[in-house]
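Is this the right way to post structure tokens for a design question? Let me know if I should format differently. Anyway, here goes:
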């Protein structure tokens, strides 16, 4: 933008030689001269010509250019031309340039404002953190980006007690706390794939009838197995040690009426509580066997409880009615105390008097079972993928992992892919209780199958899978879930231990006034390590549960290894490293394993009856415990007078002139000084004299002088007792 300013003749001085009125060299003019006026007029018209020239120049400017004319005063004309094609003069910016620059500065300020607003919005967006399975309060505070004190205060406001920096939080708790702090928790989880049983149909009336599943329950040695033996005309108890059922058995019986009943025989021993509970849950009807000559016993009461929890109807079988001392009426009366009222007493529970040994009343028992089943209208669905329960499992020679399963729904066939617990398998073969091959098994049919990748646990639910890939994914999901559950349980245990240690330290500081006492060595409990091997999983579970009930406040029993099947070389290696003994149940050890164990000084103990195994373990624990200590007083002597005797070099010794009141005092016995019923000192006799003669013993009524080694503070009236320490083996844990 250029500015052209013509000079007014009234205010401009200059010579005629200048276009704008500037004086020529060597000349000047003043306002009143004619030459000056003419020059001024000439300059004025020259300036108009210049303005016209500028106007002509502006006409050549593009549309973006601007032409402005302003008249100031009388003869002054100002022209401003703004155009991008005109270059401004160097120096101070013009008004238009300043305005453009101001506009540009405004746009720059807007950009900066938007950028700051964007950053502020990003800062206000909730932060995301990845929450692990377990995290301490200190680490969570670090992830969130706040101090531990601020987080602890926030957690206390949320209802947490005893918040400390080392408090462990599980994933759910940490996620809730993070949300309260406007932080988005990202839980690290995996995709869960699992199999569930099919939903029950709305009506079972469209499906065919199936055989009832009957569980025989009762107290140990009340004749359950003998009763079943008579029912299926085979010998079962002969194969059981001591005539006591050691593990659950499942088999199907065909009655003369060609109807079928599936029986489950559960052990009556106290250690098999879990197996009886499983039997009650998988059954339709419970037959409670009670001996007519023995009445209600602890496992009888337990069986009643399991049956009621499972909602299964009860049939009472009063066994051993062939004995002279049998009293069925007494049994019926005792049952009423446990809310089991038989039909003879106005209740709805059938009671049948039977004898498993002679077969008395078995027909009546079968008819009662079928009648109850008919009223229950028990039906089954044989279509679709199989669903079953594991009754027992073990490792068989030449077959590997074998499990007895009871089909509840669908049909099981060789080649089916099945999942049970945390293992899966492809059915290789199926056999019944007699070892005969079975091509398919429908509802209520027990079969023994092999082909498992791992050994399933008794009580696991078996569900068919459409493919091996699906079965593997399901097992992986279940294993991950179990590991996570164990981690959560360990979190709670760690928090409890830390809290106990913290409180103990606070109590110690309070008692000592803040001063720490020298640490005393902690009591280390002795530990007995064992390895358990059993024939079937149910027995292993029962033994493990029974051993877990042993007291552990003085000695700890640690099962370093367990499994189903024969002893292997790896078991012996583990026993050698852990300094453990191997205990087997219903498993004879091979000669090669026995020789290997003997060469490494590893004891192997085998048992066939469970209570003998438990007694052996108990005796082993008692041997490691310190014995019971008792003190027997052999004699007493009353101190009658004290003497000071100079022994040598002005050293004096206190001699107690005493009389033996009871027993015989022997110099070799330990003694203690009793004053007013309180024992002051225990030690040994240094000197025992009668008159001036040294003696080794003093009988009742004899007077003697007694000096006690390490104790000089004897007084008249004290009693000196001699005693012996008697140690006896512990009889209880």
């Amino acid at each position: 933008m250029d500015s052209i300013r013509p000079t007014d003749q009234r205010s401009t001085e200059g010579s005629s030689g200048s276009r704008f009125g500037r004086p020529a060299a060597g000349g000047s003019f003043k306002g009143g001269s004619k030459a000056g006026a003419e020059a001024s007029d000439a300059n004025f018209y020259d300036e108009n010509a210049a303005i016209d020239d500028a106007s002509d120049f502006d006409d050549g400017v593009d549309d973006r250019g601007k032409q402005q004319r302003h008249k100031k005063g009388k003869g002054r004309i100002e022209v401003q031309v703004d155009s991008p094609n005109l270059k401004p003069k160097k120096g101070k910016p013009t008004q238009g340039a300043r305005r453009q620059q101001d506009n540009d500065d405004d746009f720059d300020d807007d950009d900066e404002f938007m950028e700051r607003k964007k950053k502020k919005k990003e800062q206000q967006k909730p932060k995301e953190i990845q929450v692990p399975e377990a995290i301490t309060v200190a680490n969570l505070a670090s992830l969130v980006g706040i101090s531990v004190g601020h987080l602890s205060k926030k957690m206390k406001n949320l209802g947490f007690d005893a918040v400390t920096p080392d408090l462990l939080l599980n994933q759910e708790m940490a996620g809730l706390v993070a949300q309260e702090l406007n932080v988005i928790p990202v839980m690290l989880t995996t995709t869960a794939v699992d199999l569930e049983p099919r939903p029950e149909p709305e009506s079972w009336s469209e499906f065919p009838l199936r055989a009832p599943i009957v569980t025989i329950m009762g107290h140990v040695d009340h004749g359950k197995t003998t009763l079943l033996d008579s029912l299926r005309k085979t010998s079962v108890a002969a194969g059981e040690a001591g005539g006591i059922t050691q593990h659950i058995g499942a088999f199907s019986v065909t009655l003369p009426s060609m109807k079928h009943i599936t029986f489950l025989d559960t052990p009556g021993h106290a250690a098999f509580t879990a197996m009886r509970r499983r039997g009650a849950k998988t059954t339709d009807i419970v037959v409670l066997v009670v001996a007519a000559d023995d009445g209600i016993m602890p496992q009888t009461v337990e069986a009643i409880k399991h049956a009621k929890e499972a909602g299964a109807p009860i049939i009472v079988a009063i066994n051993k009615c062939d004995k002279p001392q049998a009293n069925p009426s007494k049994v019926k009366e005792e049952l009423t105390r446990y809310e089991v009222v038989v039909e003879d007493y106005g209740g709805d529970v059938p009671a049948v008097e039977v004898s498993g040994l002679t077969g008395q009343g078995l027909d009546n028992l079968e008819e009662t079972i079928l009648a109850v089943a008919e009223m229950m209208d028990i039906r089954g669905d044989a279509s679709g993928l199989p669903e079953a329960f594991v009754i027992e499992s073990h490792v068989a020679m030449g077959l590997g992992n074998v499990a007895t399963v009871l089909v509840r729904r669908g049909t099981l066939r060789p080649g089916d892919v099945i999942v049970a617990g945390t293992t899966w398998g492809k059915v290789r073969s199926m056999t019944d209780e007699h070892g005969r091959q079975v091509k398919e098994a429908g509802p209520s049919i027990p079969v023994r199958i092999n082909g498992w990748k791992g050994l399933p646990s008794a009580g696991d639910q078996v569900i068919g899978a459409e493919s091996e890939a699906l079965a593997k994914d399901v097992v992986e999901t279940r294993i991950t879930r179990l590991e996570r559950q164990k981690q959560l349980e360990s979190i709670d245990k760690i928090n409890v231990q830390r809290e106990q240690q913290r409180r103990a330290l606070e109590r110690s500081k309070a008692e000592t006034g803040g001063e720490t006492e020298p640490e005393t060595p902690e009591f280390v409990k002795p530990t007995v390590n064992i390895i358990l091997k059993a024939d079937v999983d149910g027995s292993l579970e029962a033994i493990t549960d029974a051993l877990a009930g042993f007291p552990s406040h003085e000695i700890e029993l640690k099962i370093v290894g367990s499994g189903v099947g024969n002893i292997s070389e790896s078991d012996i290696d583990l026993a050698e490293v852990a300094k453990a003994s191997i205990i087997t149940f219903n498993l004879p050890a091979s000669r090669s394993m026995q020789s290997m164990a003997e060469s490494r000084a590893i004891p192997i103990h085998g048992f066939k009856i469970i209570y003998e195994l438990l007694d052996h373990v108990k005796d082993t624990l008692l041997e490691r415990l310190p014995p019971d200590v008792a003190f027997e007083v052999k004699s007493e002597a009353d101190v009658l007078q004290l003497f000071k005797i100079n022994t040598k070099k002005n050293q004096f010794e206190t001699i107690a002139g005493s009389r033996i009141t009871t027993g015989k005092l022997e110099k070799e016995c330990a003694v203690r000084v009793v004053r007013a019923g309180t024992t002051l000192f225990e030690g040994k006799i240094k000197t025992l004299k009668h008159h001036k003669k040294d003696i080794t013993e003093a009988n009742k009524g004899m007077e003697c002088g007694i000096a006690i080694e390490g104790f000089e503070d004897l007084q008249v009236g004290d009693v000196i007792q001699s005693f012996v320490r008697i140690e006896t083996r512990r009889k209880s844990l």
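Format looks fine. Someone answered above. Worth noting: The chain is about 30% helix and 30% strand. Residues 340 and 503 are 50 Å apart (CA to CA).
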